[in-house]
Amino acid sequence: MANYLGRQRTIAELRSFLPVEPVSSKRIAPNTLEFKLANGTCGILFHKTVIAEVYPNGRMRLDTAKHQTATTKDRLNCLLPSGCSIGAERGKWFYFQRTADKVAKHPFTDGMVIDAEGTPVSS
Q1: Count of alpha carbons within 13 Å of 115, Cβ hemisphere only?
Q2: Residue 72 — φ and ψ, nearest 5°?
Q3: Phi, psi of 16 (to 5 degrees)
Q4: Considering the entire predicted model, what is its pTM?
Q5: Long-range contacts of 5-11 (CB under 8 A, 24+ apart)
Q6: Per-residue pLDDT tens digits for 60-81
Q7: How far is CA 113 from each of CA 26, 61, 100, rounded to the nearest angstrom?
Q8: Which of 28, 52, 85, 94 could bond 44 through an S-S bridge, CB–CB 3.0 to 4.6 Å?
Q9: How far is CA 120 from the centre of its chain?
């Protein structure tokens, strides 16, 4: 996939969008960078947006910067705990958490945080 300039961003270009220099990073898909920071936080950068940050305590922060596209949703769904997903209904995004006996549906909000099991803890 190409960015709006008609080409893939280089790893150096992607790294330049991070708030601090990562200790490691690698391209995992077009215009998508997996990174690790010195404080132990890991994350995924898609284009210019850190769409997911996983903290050392297992919590994960999700963000689209209001770019709720199918590709962003696909990138996020690959990271979520088993039984959890992001889906759209009538143009609105929702966070689904499935257990053996029920499905909990939560409105997706940029900046929402889930725990290691996938339960939303804040937004």
Answers
A1: 4
A2: -60, -45
A3: -65, -20
A4: 0.82
A5: 9/47
A6: 999 999 989 999 999 999 999 9
A7: 24, 4, 22
A8: 52
A9: 14
Contacts by 105-108, CB closer than 8 A, 24 or more apart = 108/62, 108/68
Q: How many angstroms separate the CA atoms of 105 and 85, rounded? A: 10
CA nearest neighbour of 62 among 11, 105, 118: 118
The span from the CA of 7 to the CA of 42, in Å, is 26
pLDDT band at 113 (very low <50, low <70, confident <90, very high): very high
Place of tokens 């909000």: 109
- pLDDT for 92 beyond 90: yes
In a 13 Å sphere around the CA of 90, the CA atoms on its Cβ side amount to 1
Q: What is the dihedral of CA 64, 7, 15, 76, to 10 degrees?
A: 30
At residue 123, the pLDDT reads 53
